[in-house]
Write a structure and sequence with these properties.
The chain has 117 residues and is of the alpha+beta class. It has one domain: 6-pyruvoyl tetrahydropterin synthase/QueD (Tetrahydropterin Synthase, Chain A, 2-Layer Sandwich), CATH 3.30.479. The chain is 24% helix and 37% strand. Strands 3-1-2-4-5 form a 5-stranded mixed sheet. The longest helix has 19 residues. The radius of gyration is 15 Å and the shape is elongated.
Length: 117
């Protein structure tokens, strides 16, 4: 059985949504997120996979979007993968799942990415 470490980080961020097909039902919204990242245990020099605080910083830096929730979720996974690999090039990400839920939190969108698929 493969040895893995799982990072589970959740939080929320504020977003100005614009355009005809944006995420959520209002323009100035709160979006809840949950990112689960499964990695092989290849740690950086500090003993971390990656800094989970940087995951929250990533979302706090999203200020505006005209994307649908579907498109935003996929783009966030793609960009988070890049940021994590930049922080710890040794980090071997096996799977990442991201869920975004915009106000009024009645629905959410989840995207799953898996290495080699």
């Amino acid at each position: 059985m493969a040895k893995t470490l799982k990072m589970d980080r959740s939080g929320e961020f504020r977003l100005y949504a614009y355009g005809p097909n944006h995420c959520g039902v209002d323009q100035d919204i709160t979006v809840k997120y949950r990112m689960v990242c499964l990695c092989s245990p290849k740690l950086d020099s500090r003993g971390f996979l990656f800094d989970q605080v940087n995951v929250d910083k990533f979302f706090q830096n999203i200020k505006r979007s005209k994307r649908s929730c579907e498109s935003l979720t996929v783009a966030c996974v793609r960009d988070l993968l890049k940021e994590i690999r930049k922080e710890n090039p040794r980090c071997e990400i096996l799977k990442m799942e991201l869920t975004l839920a915009p106000e009024p939190f009645a629905a959410s969108m989840t995207y799953s990415w898996e290495k080699g698929k």
